[in-house]
Amino acid sequence: MSSTFPTIGILGGGQLGKMMAAEAVRMSVDARLLSPKETGPMQPYTGARVGDWTDPDVLRPFTADCDVVTVESEWAPADAAAEVLPDGAALWPSTQTLSLIKDKGVQKQHLADAGCPVPAFACCETLDEALDAAEEFGYPVVLKQYRGAYDGYGNATAASEDELREAWPDLATEDGAMVETFADFARELAVQVARRPGGNQVVYPVAYTEQRDHRCHAVEVPADIDDAIADKARHIAQKSVDAVEGVGLIAVELFEMPDGRVLVNELAPRPHNTGHYSIEGAATSQFENHVRAVLDWPLGDPSLRTPVAVMVNVLGRREGTPPQTTGLPRALDTEGVTPHIYGKPDVRPGRKMGHVTALGADRADTRKRAEMAASAIEL
Hints:
By secondary structure, this protein is an alpha+beta fold. The chain is built from 12 helices and 18 strands. It has helices at 15-26, 56-63, 78-84, 95-101, 104-113, 127-137, 161-171, 227-243, 278-281, 286-294, 328-332, 363-376, and strands at residues 7-11, 30-35, 48-50, 68-71, 90-91, 121-124, 141-144, 155-158, 177-181, 187-195, 201-203, 207-212, 215-221, 248-256, 262-268, 308-315, 337-341, 352-360. The strands form 3 sheets. Strands 10, 11, 12, 13, 14, 15, 16, 17 and 18 form a 9-stranded antiparallel β-sheet that branches. A 5-stranded parallel β-sheet has the order 3-2-1-4-5, sandwiched between helices. The chain has a 4-stranded antiparallel β-sheet with strand order 6-9-7-8, sandwiched between helices. α2 packs across α3 (78-84). It is globular, with a radius of gyration of 20 Å. The N and C termini lie far apart (42 Å).
């Protein structure tokens, strides 16, 4: 173990790992990353390694001097890492927490059992069971793949029996798939919760999230909602995180329903796209608080630095073309806006290549500046 500043091992080499490592290094925490393949975001870090992250012979030297190991994604091989951790080292989130979250059916059932409000759902082993559930809930319904879904992939909205039959072969595994009633929400919200191993936690402001084509387009903080709804969202987020005994930064995605109910959509056991605004917009970013939490250090202030923060994602617009800096100077020239480019080596339409954050006092003006800067960047 390190005798001075600790060492944190990050399983993952994408933009989340990059931003975790940046905050760790700023606090003189030694950060190392392990990825199964070369990635652009991890390249600036001398502690980055590429190898089979399921192989004990790769994991053992990677974790050897670590005080704590954490994950960039719930699909990282945490179980394998736990088997080779040195004495005294910790793995956060725990394998138990990850097992409760990474399977959408298990996650939804666990939250429901814990008394967290969720949309009506059914875990279906067969197409016939899915059709029966859809008939009970009423169309439209959402068919969800149990594992591996992200950014709109792995989900399908079915407005009829024919559409459900068509979607089933693509999303169902040998265990089937989950059918969920379509939440005809008023808004989608998100709350980030940073939680230490003993349960001490801080809660970020409630964010309004805007989706386009099943991908997060923009995030506005604080959400323009009634105080009662905000309080309810924060309470439900904390209850959900406590239910899975999360450690680190956990993002809770929520539905605000027209009748005032707030329902849990999904949990992510790590920093999340909906919390990227916090790098510039909060007193302590979600990435810094993730590092603090997994090291069991005191948590930082999650409150906003300015009245409004708006984050807009920068998505790929071309296929296979190496990223360029076209438009980046124009984005940099936009007042009160900070661009983040992740360093991914290739572009795909809809792929998250970066984001911009704008800070300000007026919601409409701040949103306008963020949109202008994001649209100027053509990677």
